[in-house]
Design goal:
Layout: E1 2-7, H1 13-21, E2 26-31, E3 43-45, H2 50-59, H3 63-72, E4 76-79, H4 81-86, E5 87-90, E6 101-106, E7 117-121, E8 131-135, E9 140-144, E10 149-154, E11 157-163, E12 166-169, H5 180-198
Parallel strand pairs: 1-2, 1-3, 3-4, 4-12, 5-6
Antiparallel strand pairs: 6-9, 7-8, 10-11, 11-12
């Protein structure tokens, strides 16, 4: 059984856990403190409010612990606000949060809650079938570094990226019935777990 954590400070935690627990041989667990990271082979940073989540990361002394695990090679996936937490640069903001992905993101790029929308896209790296995409006050990637792979664009804007063992999506796969992205991320976590075990 492979354990994957979901940062459980704020946001769409239950939905991610439900999707993880729907996958065979995967156990989703809530991560609220640094000690909760010990058993996990991957970590999801969920959607929510990035400013509040960044503040809570500091208050709960989680930033350093998460950064240490990412630097070890642990896969991490940020959805919506989670993408903002991972970004090296945030447009119009002087400082970032974890700052590990070589991307510049724009917060609330699609406008307010009223400008939320759904669509679908073919993302070959993740699924052979079109994947439903739900955007809620979503960011998008304005710039991506040379080491960043663009997985998906919507209306010319970058909405899914990958860099080494890090994944970020502007949309919310956990708010659909589709398990493609969770299955894709679980495979990354499983590969790292095998590598780590064999070291």
């Amino acid at each position: 059984m492979l354990t994957i954590g979901v940062l459980a400070l704020q946001g769409a935690v239950k939905e991610h856990l439900d999707h993880l627990n729907a996958l065979p041989q995967i156990r989703g667990v809530a991560v609220k403190k640094a000690a909760d990271l010990a058993p996990v082979a991957g970590l999801i940073l969920p959607g929510g409010e990035s400013t509040a989540m960044g503040k809570l990361l500091r208050e709960f002394l989680l930033s350093r612990a998460i950064l240490d695990r990412i630097q070890e090679g642990m896969p991490v996936w940020g959805t919506c606000a989670g993408m903002i937490l991972l970004a090296r640069t945030i447009a119009g903001q002087e400082t970032g949060y974890l700052g590990v992905m070589d991307i510049c993101v724009r917060r609330n790029a699609y406008g307010s809650q009223l400008d939320s929308f759904s669509t679908e896209a073919l993302i070959p790296a993740v699924s052979a079938a079109p994947v439903p995409l739900v955007f809620i006050r979503a960011p998008y990637v304005e710039e991506a570094g040379a080491d960043v792979t663009v997985l998906a664009k919507v209306d010319g804007h970058i909405v899914a990226v990958e860099q080494d063992h890090m994944l970020a999506t502007a949309f919310h796969p956990e708010l659909t019935d589709d398990l493609s992205f969770h299955r894709y991320f679980a495979a990354k976590a499983a590969a790292w777990n095998v590598l780590k075990t064999n070291l």
